[in-house]
């Protein structure tokens, strides 16, 4: 009898936790390729920085992946897997030129790390190979997703509440809109250059 009661209580807790978290989904149109969609800063709420370090590799004279999305406070490791020396620098973070930085140049097999503490798009460049480009998109919450190539996205485990959701795409203007999450919510975006 006690065991059945404990199982019932555990199931109720699981379902009650699931009931207070929802999903935001939709489509980003007007642009080709992947976009980033995220819940903007939530007033009065902070989130611990992830301990895992995503890796941006310089391989085949490309930044791989081309777009990396991280939460504020995340340290990104920049690796050089090519047989030639590479450099990583950015001229701004979210348009703020005071936050530009140069990690320097290093040979194959080495990596350099950087902690991103300011939200915004970070345009990655290489002084050695000017044709190389990529992005680190630093978002203020852990609630974000990259769209598929068709523009569909889904942000899961978003607590019920009212938020501003923003869509970003390389070379397009950001678009933000209010979204009320109570279970499932939908937000479609049409971006333009």
Describe it for me?
Strand 14 (161-168) and strand 15 (175-181) form a beta hairpin. This protein has 2 domains: 1-43 and 154-193, Immunoglobulin-like (Sandwich); 48-140, Cupredoxins -  blue copper proteins (Immunoglobulin-like). The radius of gyration is 20 Å and the shape is globular. It has one helix at residues 2-19, and strands at residues 21-29, 36-39, 55-59, 62-64, 67-71, 74-80, 86-90, 101-106, 111-116, 120-125, 133-139, 144-146, 152-159, 161-168, 175-181, 184-186, 189-190. The strands form 5 sheets. Strands 1, 13, 16 and 17 form a 4-stranded mixed beta sheet that branches. Strands 12-2-14-15 form a 4-stranded antiparallel beta sheet, with no helix packed on it. The chain is mainly beta. The protein has 1 helix and 17 strands.
